[in-house]
Amino acid sequence: MMKRRLRHPCWPTGLLAVVLLAQARNAPAPNGQRVAFPEGYQKKYQVLRMVDKPDKKQLVTVYGNDAAASIKSTGQLPYPYGSILVMETSSALKGSQGKVALDEKGHYRKGKVLGLHVMRKEHGFGEGYGQNRTGEWEYVEFGPDRSYLTPPEKSSVCAECHLKAGREKDFVYGGRLHSDRGN
User: Fold this and answer.
1) What's the domain range around 97?
2) Is residue 16 part of a domain?
């Protein structure tokens, strides 16, 4: 009597998911701690952009040090070495009636800081990302207590995402850049 093997219809998909997860965990990334917590960024850096996230009731504020803030249009790219960009995510402050409070410009008022995505550009940076290299940028993510949410050795996910911004934007999303063509 011949035995039939039954295969679960999701087996190939499940295997693919396991393989992709293993690859993501083992994706190349820098080993050193070359991107530090940006001490005093809220006072030392310039606010480049603020974006309300209504679906999450969050405010995203992008800060740049002087080098990063010197770039005001796509025609001035690439960012100079020494550029540091900080994307701060915070909860939206709520008023006494539970509604999101707005500032004088109509943006959400900042509540508790939830995390900081930090990217830094220096000579020779980014090589550790291998095929996901994004120029000479390296990335980390910190919690408000300065602990790593995404340490350098796991930051390949950041590089993979910034690849989508493209070389023509020096692998940076938004900032305060405006196209020199008027859009």
Assistant:
1) 44-169
2) no
Question: Which pLDDT value is given to residue 69?
Answer: 96
Q: Could you say which DSSP state residue 145 is in?
A: T
Whole-structure pTM value: 0.82
Residues of the chain with pLDDT under 50: 3-23, 179-183
What pLDDT, on a 0 to 100 scale, did the predictor assign at position 31? 84
Total number of domains in the chain: 1
Indicate whether 14 belongs to any domain: no
pLDDT of residue 10: 44
pLDDT, residue 16, reads 42
Q: Which CATH number belongs to the domain containing residue 119 in this structure?
A: 3.50.70.20
Helices (H), 3-122: 11-25, 41-44, 66-69
* 73-80, long-range: CB < 8 A, 24+ apart: 73/177, 73/178, 73/179, 73/180, 74/168, 74/169, 74/177, 74/178, 74/179, 74/180, 75/180, 77/168, 77/169, 77/170, 77/177, 78/135, 78/170, 79/121, 79/170, 79/172, 80/121
- Parallel, antiparallel or unpaired: strands 58-64 and 137-142: unpaired
Which of 52, 79, 54 is closest to 64 using CA atoms? 79
